[in-house]
Amino acid sequence: MLRFDVVQKAFNKKAVEVDVPSERQSSYFGELVFNREKMQRYLDPQVFEALTACIDGGQPLSQQIADKVAEGMKQWALEHGVTHITHWFQPLNESTAEKHDSMMEYDGKGGMIESFTGRSLIQQEPDASSFPSGGLRATFEARGYTAWDPTSPVFIQGDTLCIPTVFISYTGEALDYKAPLIKALKAVSDAAVPLCRLFDPAVGKVHSYLGWEQEYFLVDEDLFAARPDLILTGRTLMGHASSKSQQLDDHYFAVIPSRVAAFMRELEIEAYKLGIPLKTRHNEVAPNQFEMAPIYGECNLANDQNQMILNIMNSVARRHGFVVLLHEKPFTGINGSGKHNNWSLGTDTGIQLLAPGKDPKGNLLFLTFFVNTLAAVQRHNALLKASIASATNSHRLGGNEAPPSIVSAFLGRTMTEVLQKLVELPSGTPIEIAGKKGTSVGIVEIPEIFLDNTDRNRTSPFAFTGNRFEFRAVGSSANCAGAMTVLNAAVAQQLRIFKKALDVELEAGKTLEVAVMDTLKPIIRSVLDVICFDGNGYSDEWKKEAARRGLDTETRVPEMIKAFCSPSSVELFTSENVYTLKELEARNEVKWDIYSKKIQIEARVLGRMATNHIIPAALTYQNVLLKNIAMMKEVYPDSYQQKAAVALSATEQISRWVSEVQQLADKLLEACRKADAIEDEYTKAQAYYEIAESLSALRDPIDKLEEIVDNDIWPLPKYRELLFIS
Ligand code: ADP
Ligand code: MG
């Protein structure tokens, strides 16, 4: 089909009607989740109690109880037409995995029954030898197993009961994102509780919260289908800039296009049934870019919900004639997509530890967590960056629209001033920090309307926004657990270090207030000097200044990844029981391997499209020009050079660009062959880093050809079509 026909077809599509349930949203919210309400309804009281003790207090479940839980789940599932069961897990290839088993079993009497036992609820052994493991599973121990994570509720997708699980090797090493996250969440709670108890003895647990903001692009499916690069790599590897892109800022927060609004509506209905509390939806900065965000929740569950949304988004989109692009940078020269991770801590007694308190004591507790979070980010800035480093996210970081590739923290004017005042006070000064209502005469004050007071700095990767920190460097396609595991573990370690130092002061007989301030002060001084930065993160001066401050300024992904195995990271993860050295090394192998493969695919696709799409189109047009020249020569033998000047110059340009395209494509594919021969994953990733850098060299002449070749002949949907039809 000619490109124009495809464009016309896409343009003429109308919004698809959505089947909106007649009940209120709140009445079907969580309908497909085996939540507490279902547990109560489908389980005996003592089974319910044992299960909640397991979920809330980590008590083990006996086989007998597990059988009863499975029985209740089965009854609920059958009422929803479920036929299959799957353990649902998050392997290291940045997607989720599921292997469905039918509930059908022989009943021993010549017939069949539906069966679901505690055993199959708790554990499965998928033959999962094809998932990345970084060598953790040699062939003789190829099996990994999945184990139920009871803290994340079972849910129904289509005809299948999905059981969220961790994925572990036969020898106990984590092979997924969930297991380390759960460990890091435990570490941060264990480290935070003793500190909180100094302020509120009733605290029993500290929760880590995550509110993700998911950005994405929508592209019409007919246009998408005509772009092999989008199909195979998720981004456009070529494409001349559209005359209009985002310069007018007329897409941001604008009226949502009707086809897109219908898609969002249907996605929300599906999300609500799955208990995902979507709250916000809007147009983003780039054309055809959008965002959604739920109400924040407990980190492990919120992350599962993000993974669930990523899974269902595309099937919903297809019903509306769209394909979702989750790639961090689908279009060059236009904003990419991130996934801000809003993060905070809170106690089971209801204290928000990263929000200013109601009274002086509450504010001291807030400052303790606030400052220690900054110290953790400072110590592990290179590691935090490594946690979000990937081949796809590398296009976004450091481009002047997303965080730069240096992790620093932005506090806003109010909190910067509070910290500056605090360090100036003479040591030992009894300090009361005025609360919201100014109930005490405080020397240092945290003003009231705090949430609205926070100024914004778009260039900061880690920003305080009033009651939480926002880690903005996470990629749109990433599993949030990668970043959240590092952040929670780092904060856990810092809280422990702090508590130890605080105990020394307390043992010296200081009051809690004085002891906390005296322990905090040197840390405050250090974070103000090093990690806190409120200037322009894109500037070259900042790169120099950051290096002077000792912050990590590495921009090459294969090098960034190394931070996972640095001595300070190994110390962090082993002391907090999050990763063993063996797991860390294996994960780095996986990261390098995935990095290389992603670039390899891009290079191959680009090389082949150059040969199969671009050169033929350019030569077709050149033939038209040559015919024109030949005929001119026939009719005007004396003046054809002047009369056919435009055509002559265009044929020459085409010849030049075409031969450049061919040469660069050959060179690229040759470089891939060389890189593929390298055994060591790190060295191979280094080679692919160079290849990644050279992709744009091949793109340049292709984009130049797009500019001069007849619009009717150009085979690929152009940026102006991909970005402005919806
Ligand atoms: P903005 O774009 O202004 O940053 P959004 O409303 O798009 O804000 O997203 C903010 C996200 O932060 C939401 O998911 C919200 O639920 C979450 N959030 C709010 N408070 C907290 C908190 N204390 N801890 C974690 N996440 C939070
Ligand atoms: Mg937002």
Walk me through this protein's architecture.
With 726 residues, this protein is an alpha+beta fold. The chain has three domains: 20-176, Glutamine synthetase, N-terminal domain (Ubiquitin-like (UB roll), Roll); 185-576, Glutamine synthetase/guanido kinase, catalytic domain (Creatine Kinase, Chain A, domain 2, 2-Layer Sandwich); 594-722, Four Helix Bundle (Hemerythrin (Met), subunit A) (Up-down Bundle), CATH 1.20.120.1560. The chain is built from 25 helices and 19 strands. Strands 9, 10, 11, 12, 13, 14, 15, 18 and 19 form a nine-stranded mixed sheet that branches. Helix 10 crosses helix 11 and helix 21 runs antiparallel to helix 23 (645-676). The longest helix has 55 residues, at 581-635. The protein is globular. 49% of the residues are buried. Bound molecules: adenosine-5'-diphosphate and magnesium ion. Adenosine-5'-diphosphate (ADP) binds at residues 209, 211, 213, 280, 293-296, 342-344, 352, 467-468.
